[in-house]
């Protein structure tokens, strides 16, 4: 397994899109992952790949600390975790936006507003650059109801179509960043793996 490339994939659509891309580009000949299985580790012995299915927020950690050589994760997660990894390539799928949203479409920023989000670092960095010191409230789900219940003034969250915001009476105030899936890598790759990964990158770019 010494020359096997271990890749961390986030459970869900990004993992499926990654495998589809690898098959299309000829990096893989067969799909070794059963996405309906409860297994978390899948081996492709012929092509010498091992895939791990993990939580998206954990992908950069597995890569940074060398448990995985490569990983696929959204740009938003890279920024939030501030992981010390190589960001090799924008894979061009998994598009979404990180936005500030509020119940009042004309909401104006001020000091000491309360921001509900699971992206605490991104939210703090965004408001600090604008000169506002805010209180962040970390939530892990159903962020949209925070302003409705008076828990926060605004939310910072990922937006795809915007339908969930509309159904909960929220409006996008500002776009913080766009996010797509990125291929990331460990900074201490062994020489044998480096050449294989270089070949993978060339095939993806081609």
From TrEMBL:
Pathway named in the protein's UniProt entry: Amino-acid biosynthesis; L-histidine biosynthesis; L-histidine from 5-phospho-alpha-D-ribose 1-diphosphate: step 1/9
Entry keyword set: Amino-acid biosynthesis, ATP-binding, Cytoplasm, Glycosyltransferase, Histidine biosynthesis, Nucleotide-binding, Transferase
GO CC annotations, alphabetized: cytoplasm
Residue span(s) of domain ATP phosphoribosyltransferase catalytic: 55-206
InterPro entries, per the entry: ATP_PRibTrfase_cat (IPR013820), ATP_PRibTrfase_CS (IPR018198), ATP_PRibTrfase_HisG (IPR001348), ATP_PRibTrfase_HisG_short (IPR024893)
GO molecular function: ATP binding; ATP phosphoribosyltransferase activity
UniProt GO BP: L-histidine biosynthetic process
Catalysed reactions listed for this entry: 1-(5-phospho-beta-D-ribosyl)-ATP + diphosphate = 5-phospho-alpha-D-ribose 1-diphosphate + ATP
Localization terms from the record: Cytoplasm
Annotated function: Catalyzes the condensation of ATP and 5-phosphoribose 1-diphosphate to form N'-(5'-phosphoribosyl)-ATP (PR-ATP). Has a crucial role in the pathway because the rate of histidine biosynthesis seems to be controlled primarily by regulation of HisG enzymatic activity.
Domain notes: Lacks the C-terminal regulatory region which is replaced by HisZ.
Name of the protein: ATP phosphoribosyltransferase
